[in-house]
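Reopening: Large ribosomal subunit protein uL15 still failing for me.
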Amino acid sequence: MPITHRKKSRKMQANRTRGYGTIGAHRAKGVRGGTGLTTGKFKHKWTYYLKMRAEGFPGPDGDKWRIGYTGFKRPQKMLRIYAVNAINIKEVELNLDQWLEDGKVEKKGTKYIIDLKSLHYNKLLGSGNVTKPMEITVEKASKKAIEKLKAAKVKLTLTATKE
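Support: Ran it again with your exact input. Result attached.
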């Protein structure tokens, strides 16, 4: 039985544009070279770019229209070195019993001996109140935390070296 009708796609094999005109036509963005303010601004949108820069778009510096990379991104290693993992006084108080069960905190008589560095905290913040007798060792503490601990007669040892 002879074939009376072939699919158009079969006829268009080895044809550069497959019946859709210029190269790039019949695609999502057509032949315009993308969308957005920065796409193609140094190629086919060059005159538009110059006009907008002259008008001061989008601001006095024209930040969106600058050529090339800007800024500097710090390496992750440096960010990790200077990262602050802080905890508030009230969170210390709330977690004391759990830490005591887990063996992360010691108790001598009525005093809790807490090493926040071993708990992976390097700064103590001053939110909350001190109700239990404690001895705390930490790298850094905020001024408010130091004041509250002095008022509650809690021994605080700061281990950070002054730079």
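DSSP finds five helices and seven strands in the chain. If you still see a failure, please send the error message rather than a screenshot.
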